[in-house]
Each structure stands twice: as C-alpha cells, then as structure tokens.
Amino acid sequence: MLKADLHIHTEYSFDCTTPLEDIIDRCVELGINCVAVADHGTIAGALKMKERAPFKVIVAEEVLTPIGEIMGMFLSEEVPTKISAEEAIRRIKGQNGLVCLPHPFDRMRGIKEKCRSLESLIPDIDIIEVFNARTLPLLFSDSKARRFAEKHGLLCSAGSDAHTLHEVGHTWVEMPEFNGSQEFRSALAQGTIHGHRSSPVVHVATTYRNILRGLKLAGRRPSG
Q1: How far apart are CA 157 and CA 138, in angstroms?
Q2: Across-strand partners of 209?
Q3: DSSP H or E segment with residue 37
Q4: How confident is the model at residue 96 (pLDDT cuts 50, 70, 90)?
Q5: Is the Cβ–Cβ distance between 135 and 167 less than 8 Å?
Q6: Which pairing describes strands 2-8 and 34-40: parallel, antiparallel, or unpaired?
Q7: Residue 136 sits in which domain range?
Q8: Mean pLDDT lowest for which of 28-32, 80-84, 198-202?
Q9: Which candidate among 24, 64, 122, 156 keeps its CA 20 to 30 Å from the CA of 147?
Q10: Bridge partners for 37 per DSSP
C-alpha cells in the first residue's frame, strides 16, 4: 500500500523555499512513499524530484486561472498561468492528465463561483480535494468539498498542501499501488484519508514569503 501526500510544494513555487532533497528525506523519514508535487505555475521541481526520489512522484501543477486554481496531475508539459479555466483543462486533458480541484470551497483560495459555478465544471473534473491540511476548520470548506464530490460521483483526494518542510505528511491517502493515471483513478477510489490539519500559523510563513517576493519585484522595476 502507498502512503500518498497528494499535494505538496517545493522551492520551485514562488511561495515556498523548501529544497527538494529536504522533502525527499522528510518523506522517507515519515514513510510517505508517493507524492504529487503541485508547484504554482511550473512542473520543473516535480520533474527533478521524480528523477531523484526513491519513491513514486506524480508530476502535477497548480494553474492559476481567472476563476481560481486548477490542478493538473500526471503532466508531461507545463500549463501556462492565467489562461482561462477552459484552456487549462483542455491542455491538461490533451496530455492525458487528470483534472483536480484543490481546496474548491476555501473562501480565499477556492473557485470563484461568481465567475463560474462548480456544477458547470463537473463534466471536466476527475478529482476533488476533500481534505487540505491548510484549510481552516471553522469554515467547513473540506466537508463541503466531500459532499460535493459524493453528490456528483467524483474521486476524492487529500494532501498537506505543504509549503514548509514540517507540513509534509500532515495528511495522506492510504491507497493501492498504481501505474499511470488510469490505474491511479482506480487506486484512489479505494483510498482512505488520514492525518491532521496544519496550524494556522503556517499561513504566516507563506504570507511573509509573498511580501518579500513583492518587495524584490518592486526593487527591480525601473524608477521614474
């Protein structure tokens, strides 16, 4: 059986500084033997980790669209940021990838339903993330996600959404072994979610990195 953290970030995400080797060591220490590396706007880190890690790595990407983030899984090509949701989904499906909605009901990071309803996306969605260790429990966004997935017969996933090293493995899915995206679907359907939420303090670290990034970018702009 696999112990799979299906949503983590690496130093290749703009809001994360965790080196690949540190993540690999942490996973080995915790017995995590499958990860989906879903950096923001790039698959470079996922591809490098797949080469180095002694365990299964799913090449994924969180793609920012006008209606929110869409995760592509089992990718071979990077999907551009800030394209339409329809185009992002088309590009993911075009490389035989799977489409996942991460934290879909999170008020800050979820799908903007004023732009497009979640129901309208159902024909194109393979997976709903029903437990994200970084979501705040008082908002009940994960329970809404699970009800939505069950109502529409969609696969359920979970992940730590780790942006710092100690978050890796906070949440995982116990599931059978698989090879490729189609076997993954069957294995995930048999999966059981385990783990716990991260402390809300983890968002402070991410916000701090975003502020630093903004200051660096501002410093590079020409004056006048």
Answers
A1: 20
A2: none
A3: strand 34-40
A4: very high
A5: no
A6: parallel
A7: 2-220
A8: 198-202
A9: 64
A10: 8, 59
Token pair in block for residue 196: 């716990």
Residues with Cβ < 8 Å from 36, sequence gap 6 or more? 4, 5, 6, 7, 8, 57, 58, 60, 73, 159
CATH no. for residue 80? Answer: 3.20.20.140
- Predicted confidence (pLDDT) at residue 139 exceeds the cutoff of 70: no
Separation of alpha carbons 73 and 4, rounded Å: 14
| Token pair recorded at residue 191 | 């999966």
Q: pLDDT tens, 151-206? A: 999 999 999 999 999 999 999 999 999 999 999 999 999 999 999 987 665 655 55
Helices (H), the chain: 20-30, 44-52, 85-94, 141-152, 180-189, 202-220
Q: In this structure, what DSSP letter does residue 94 have?
A: H
Which positions ≥6 away from 95 have C-beta within 8 Å?
74, 75, 76, 77
8-state DSSP, 54: S
Assign 3-state DSSP to the chain and report helix, strand, coil percentages, each to 5.
Answer: 40, 25, 40
Q: Which of 70-84, 181-195, 210-224 has the lowest mean pLDDT?
A: 210-224
Count of domains for the chain: 1
Maximum separation of any 2 CA atoms in the chain, in Å: 60
Place of tokens 């696969």: 155
Angle at 43 between CA 37 and CA 47, to 5 degrees: 75
